[in-house]
Amino acid sequence: MSGVSDNRRPANPWPPVQTEQPEIHPKAPGPGTKLQMHYAECFGCGEVDNGLHMRSTVGEAGVVFSKFPVTRAHQGAPGLAHGGLLACAFDEALGSTVGNLLRRPAVTGKLETDFLRPVPVGTTLFIAARVDGVAGRKIYASADGHLDSADGPVAVRARGLFIQVGLEHFTTHGDPEALQKFTQQPTRRAEDWDINP
Ligand SMILES: CCCCCCCC/C=C\CCCCCCCC(=O)SCCNC(=O)CCNC(=O)[C@H](O)C(C)(C)COP(=O)(O)OP(=O)(O)OC[C@H]1O[C@@H](n2cnc3c(N)ncnc32)[C@H](O)[C@@H]1OP(=O)(O)O
What we know:
Helices cover 18% and strands 28% of the residues. The chain has one domain: Roll (Thiol Ester Dehydrase, Chain A), CATH 3.10.129.10. It is globular, with a radius of gyration of 16 Å. The protein has helices at residues 83-102, 168-173, 176-184; strands at 34-35, 55-58, 63-69, 106-115, 124-135, 138-147, 154-164. A seven-stranded antiparallel beta sheet has the order 1-2-3-5-6-7-4, with helices on one face. By secondary structure, it is of the alpha+beta class. It has three helices and seven strands; from the N terminus they run βββαββββαα. Residues 38, 44, 91-92, 95-96, 99-100, 105, 107-110, 136-138, 161, 163, 165, 183, 188, 190, 193, 195 line the site of ligand 3VV.
């Protein structure tokens, strides 16, 4: 995405620094692969009550498609999705795209969202996300969220900076046991990831 080309929302250059083309990891899931949830307790893709229950599929040309079914549990204004939860959906979609395609553990450093149209309860947001460029540990990704179909009107756009981290980020600040369970899954073996930032 080159930026939001709406007069009301002038686009800043994106990525904001010089980057290299992202290299899809040789063991990245290929086009057509339905991505499994990355962690059962994840609010975005896990089995959490009233979570976002997002599901993602790898598309062609480095695009990952995610769906966020908006329910009454996700309201801000009556009948409309809460903007913070929409931002959460994009954090998940972008993070999943970076993690699965580059196979580099990374966390969100910055996330910006443009809310272009209301997202009603009962709709599904179809999110198309891609990695735009890499500069050392900095990974730039962006996404468009379409209402109710892959080519529906764009309701939300997001751009994120993800920072590659070593696994010690999760053991030092998070839950070492949870990380161990995570890496025991067949598709999450540490040797299949690029884990040296
Ligand atoms: C074998 C297993 C593998 C596991 C892999 C799992 C993948 C699974 C697949 C898929 C799942 C993904 C789905 C998840 C989706 C949700 C993701 C989230 O919600 S993440 C939680 C929220 N984010 C945080 O909690 C970060 C908190 N912040 C930090 O920990 C630090 O600030 C951190 C690591 C981001 C950076 O700290 P520093 O000390 O390491 O590095 P410094 O030097 O500060 O930054 C590095 C570079 O980035 C720039 N930078 C950092 N933050 C920036 C910002 N906000 N704006 C602009 N630039 C920034 C800096 O200016 C620097 O740039 P210069 O190298 O000097 O050019």
